[in-house]
Write a structure and sequence with these properties.
The structure is a homodimer of 494-residue chains.
Chain A: H1 4-7, E1 11-14, E2 19-22, E3 30-35, H2 46-64, E4 68-73, H3 91-99, H4 103-120, H5 136-148, E5 152-155, E6 158-161, H6 163-168, H7 181-185, E7 203-208, E8 224-226, H8 228-240, E9 243-250, H9 254-269, E10 273-280, E11 283-285, E12 288-289, H10 300-305, H11 317-325, E13 333-335, H12 337-359, H13 370-382, H14 387-402, H15 413-430, H16 439-462, H17 466-479, E14 482-486, E15 489-493
Parallel strand pairs in A: 3-4, 3-9, 9-10, 11-13
Antiparallel strand pairs in A: 1-2, 5-6, 6-7, 7-8, 11-12, 14-15
Helix pairs in contact in A: 3-4, 5-8, 8-9, 11-12, 12-14, 12-15, 13-14, 13-15, 16-17
Chain lengths: 494, 494
C-alpha cells in the first residue's frame, strides 16, 4: 500500500528561506529531526513545554504518515551561560553553587522534572536524548576541524569562531536571522571578556574555565568547557548526519543559537545541517509577557494542579495540550484562565463525541461525505502542521455526530468505520490528546454513589424493608465494599 | 536535636572484609553511595529490579536517619561486551544491529523502560545518574594515570590492566572475591583476543574498535571504547571522590566487575574507592534459576500486569515491593505465584491496619509499649538493613492495632501519635510501599456500586416508591452521574 506521505505531501514554512516549501526528505521514507531541548537548571518553563509539545505533534504526524523518524532532542547540561552570552556563570553551575549541590545533582533533579511534565502532556520520548556533557569528545573533534578549516582562532586558552573571516570567504552568517554582520560588529565590544575576541560578533566554541568554574574538561586548548552553540551542531551531526531534514526550536533560539549552529555546521562540513529550520512562537499570559518578577508567570505543573493565583482551578494535561493545539505553532499563544476554561469545554465535547461515535449504529447510507472530510483533515495537517484548521474540521464532525440522534441522519457501515478510525487517530495519535482515566473522578463519583447507597440502606432499615437491606448487603459484599457503622455515621472501605 | 543516625548507628555487612562493621562515613553526616546500574540493551531484568529496590530502601533509610545522601547509580550505555568478557560484541551495538537502529536509540528505549519500572516500584530517582558515554574524557584520563603509575600496558591499540605486576608490587587483586591470581592466570588463555594480553587475568581498560564496531571515540591509543569496568571507577571518583562510603551491586558483579573496579581505583588513586562494599543476592523463580530459554522467566512489567503463564493475576507494584522487602537483601529470594499471593494478603493487611490506626481514638493510658517497639524497629533497620525483622515488628503492631476494638486495649494520646507517625514512616518512607490510588479499583467498585443503585432504582419504580426514586435521581444529578435507559438496560456516565 502506498504510504500516506505520498498521498498527503507535507509543506513546511522554512525559516531558512522564509518560504513554504514542499517537504522532501534527504532519504526517502525517513525523517531526521533535531530539536533544541531544555537547559536543566530549573523547572521546565511553560514556553518550553509548548515548544516541545509542538514538535511532539509533528513527530507524531510524520510517524502517522508512515515515515521512519529519528527524533533527537538534547538535554543541555553544561555550557549554557547566563544571558545566553559568552560570559557569565554556567546556569547549572550557578544553581548548584546556590543549593550547595554537585552540578549533576541539579541536572538530574530537573531532568526528572522535565520528563514528568512531558509524560503528563503526553509527549512521546524522543528517539535519542543526548546530553552536552555526554559529547565533549565529539565537540572537541568538531572544534579541531573548524580550526583546521580556518574558521576559528585560539585566544588565551579559549577558541572563538571567526565570523568576519567566515563571511569574507563566502560564509553567510546572518542567513537565518536576517541580521547584518556590520550591525553585529558594533555595540557590545565593551562587555566583560570581549577583549579576547577579534570582533564582537565572534562566538565561543571552547571557553577556558576560570579557577572557580567547576564543570571542566581537558582539551588541546585549556581545561574548559564547550560553547553553548556547539553541542547542537556536534550532536545533530553525530546522530543525523551532516545533512538532515528538520531542525526545530523556539523562536528565541533563532539568534544567536541557530545562526551559530549553521555557521559551525558549514565551517566543519560544508553543509548547513538541516534543510528545514522551524521555529515555534512565544506565549503570553493574560496578554502580557510572562515574567517571574512581576508575578505574571505560571509553570506547567501549576496548570495541572491549579496552584497558582492566576488560575481558578487545575486543568487536566490533555486539556492543556488541546488548548496549545488550538493555536498554530507559529502563532503567539495567550494563556488565561478563561481561555483554558473554554478549551476544557471544547476538549470534553470532542472526546464526548468520540465516545458517542463508538456507540453509533450504521445506517443504510451516508448523509455525510466522510472521505472528503478525511482528505480535508490531512490537507490541513500537511499544510505546515495546521492544528487549528484540523481542530475546526474535527468539530464539524462533532456537530454531525451529535446530530445523529435524528434518524434521517447517519453513516453507512464503511463510513462509520472510517470516521471512527480517523477521529480517534487525529485526536489521540496525532494531536496527542488522552482520555483521562482520572482516579480522582472515579473516586469522587464512588464516594457520592456510596453516600447514596448508605442513605438508601438507612432508609430501608428505618422502613423495615429487609429485602432491600439484604440486596444492598449482598451486592456490596460481592463488590468487595465493606460498610462500617461508627459514631460519626457509616463509612466504607474497599 | 540529635540526628537519628547517632541514636541508631548502622551496622553493615562489608563484602570487602567479610565482617559486619559499624558504619562510619568518610564525612560526618553525609553518605556517598554508588550503585552499578543497568546495561540498557533490553527490558530491565527482575533481578536488577530487586537489586535497585534494595539500594533504594537503603537510600531511603539513610535519608530518614538524617544523613545527607548523594546516591549515584549509573547507566551503562557502552563498553559492556557479551558474556561480560573482554571480547565479543557490545551488547547495545548488537541489539542496534539486529533492530537496524542507532545504538543510542536502543539506549533511549530501554532507559525510558527502566525508569518506568523504577517509578512503578516507587524507587526514588538517584541523585545523579551518569552514563558511560557521558564520561569518555574522564575514563581516558584515568587510563592515562594508571599507565603513568605503571599498572597498565598498551597492546595493539588496546590498553590492559597488568594484574600480575599490580599484585607483585603490593596490590591485592582478589581481595573482594577471594579468588587467587594463580588460579585466574591459567585457563582462559586460548580465548579469542587473549593473545593481546600478557596474562589471562589482565583486563581491558581501553579496546581498539574493530572496523565494524560503531560505538567508538578517539583516544591516545586508538579509536576505540572504554572497558566495561572502567566507567564505574571513573564516575564514582568524579562524583563521590577517591574515598567514599558505600558501593553496591548485585552479587554477580562481585567478580570480575567489582574486583577490577577496586584494582583500578587503587592503581589510579591509591584508594579502594568505597569503604563498604555491599552485594544483593540473586533470585529464583519457582525454585529454579530464571532462564528465558526454558521459559522460567518473568519481567517486572509482567508481574504488574499478570501477562505471564506463570502468574494467575497481576500484582500491584507496592505488593511486589513488599514481597521483595520480606526477604533480606543478602538472601536468595524465590518468586512464585503463591508467594506473591501471600505477600498481597500481608501487604493489604499492613496497609489496612495503618488505615484503622488513623481512626483510633486515644485512651487514658497505653497497654502497649510503643517506644520499645520503635526502638526495636530502628535496631532491625540499622542491623544491616534487616527489612524482614522490621516487617515482623510491623505485624506485631498490626496485631495490636486490630485488637483495639477491645475497650480494655488502647494507647495514650502521645503513644497513638508516635505509633501513627512511625508506622507510616516505616511502611511508606523507608520500605517504600505505596497506597495504590488505583483508578482501576475505584472504577470497578464504582461500576458495582452503580449496578446496585440502578437495581434499587428499578425496584423503587416497580414498587411505586417515588420518594426513593426521587432521592436517587437528585443525588446522582448532584454527583454528576447520568443514567441512560436503553434497550440493553440502564447504563451510567460521569
Amino acid at each position: 500500500m502506498e504510504p500516506l506521505y505520498r498521498k498527503y505531501p507535507i509543506f513546511i514554512e522554512n525559516s531558512l528561506t522564509g518560504k513554504k516549501e514542499i517537504f522532501l526528505p534527504v532519504s526517502d521514507g525517513r525523517v531526521g529531526m533535531y530539536v533544541c531541548g531544555p537547559t536543566v537548571y530549573s523547572d521546565v518553563h511553560l514556553g518550553n513545554a509548548r515548544t516541545f509539545t509542538s514538535y511532539d505533534f509533528m513527530f507524531r504526524y510524520f510517524k502517522h504518515l508512515g515515515y521512519q523518524v529519528r527524533y533527537v532532542r538534547n538535554i543541555t547540561d553544561a555550557g549554557h551561560l547566563e544571558n545566553d552570552a559568552d560570559e557569565g556563570e554556567d546556569k547549572i553551575a550557578k544553581k548548584a553553587r546556590i543549593e550547595q549541590l554537585e552540578p549533576m545533582e541539579i541536572v538530574q533533579r530537573y531532568t526528572v522534572d522535565f520528563h514528568e511534565v512531558m509524560e503528563k502532556i503526553n509527549a512521546l520520548p524522543p528517539s535519542i536524548e543526548p546530553t552536552a556533557t555526554g559529547h565533549i569528545v565529539e565537540q572537541i573533534q568538531m572544534i579541531k576541524t573548524i580550526i583546521e578549516n580556518g574558521w576559528a582562532y585560539q585566544s588565551n586558552g579559549s577558541v572563538y569562531f571567526d565570523v568576519e573571516n567566515y563571511n569574507t570567504k563566502g560564509g553567510d552568517y546572518g542567513v537565518l536571522s536576517g541580521r547584518k554582520l556590520e550591525d553585529l560588529q558594533s555595540g557590545s565590544r565593551a562587555l566583560d571578556g570581549q577583549e579576547e575576541k577579534k570582533n564582537a560578533a565572534d562566538f565561543a566554541l571552547w571557553k577556558k574555565a576560570s579557577p572557580e568554574h567547576i564543570m571542566r574538561w581537558p582539551s588541546p586548548w585549556s581545561e574548559g568547557f564547550p560553547g553553548w552553540h556547539l553541542e547542537c551542531s556536534a550532536m545533530s551531526t553525530k546522530y543525523l548526519g551532516e545533512q538532515f531534514d528538520i531542525h526545530g526550536g523556539g523562536m528565541d533560539l533563532k539568534f544567536p543559537h541557530h545562526e551559530c549552529e549553521i555557521a559551525q555546521n558549514v565551517a566543519s562540513s560544508g553543509h548547513k545541517g538541516a534543510k528545514y529550520w522551524l521555529h515555534t512562537n512565544m506565549l503570553t499570559l493574560n496578554g502580557k509577557r510572562m515574567s517571574k518578577s512581576t508575578g505574571n508567570a505560571i509553570l506547567p505543573k501549576e496548570l495541572f494542579t491549579g496552584q497558582n493565583p492566576l488560575l481558578s482551578k487545575g486543568f487536566n494535561p490533555s486539556t492543556v495540550r488541546f488548548f496549545m493545539m488550538q493555536a498554530h505553532y507559529s502563532s503567539i499563544l495567550d494563556f488565561s484562565d478563561d481561555a483554558l476554561m473554554a478549551a476544557e469545554k471544547g476538549h470534553d465535547k470532542l472526546l464526548g463525541a468520540i465516545e458517542t461515535l463508538s456507540k453509533l449504529q450504521p445506517s443504510e447510507s451516508s448523509t455525510y461525505n466522510v472521505q472528503d472530510w478525511v482528505d480535508r483533515c490531512y490537507i490541513a495537517l500537511s499544510d505546515n502542521f495546521n492544528s487549528p484548521i484540523l481542530i475546526s474540521h474535527l468539530f464539524e464532525a462533532v456537530k454531525f455526530i451529535n446530530s445523529c440522534t435524528d434518524l434521517s441522519i447517519g453513516l453507512s457501515k464503511g463510513d462509520l468505520q472510517l470516521l471512527t478510525e480517523k477521529m480517534n487517530c487525529f485526536a489521540f495519535d496525532v494531536l496527542g490528546l488522552r482520555k483521562e482515566e482520572s482516579s480522582d473522578s472515579h473516586k469522587e463519583a464512588l464516594n457520592k454513589a456510596m453516600d447514596l447507597v448508605i442513605e438508601l440502606r438507612a432508609k430501608a432499615r428505618d422502613n423495615k424493608d429487609w429485602d432491600t437491606a439484604d440486596i444492598i448487603r449482598k451486592q456490596l459484599t460481592e463488590a468487595g465494599i465493606q460498610l462500617k457503622d461508627g459514631a460519626d455515621g457509616t463509612s466504607y472501605t474497599l
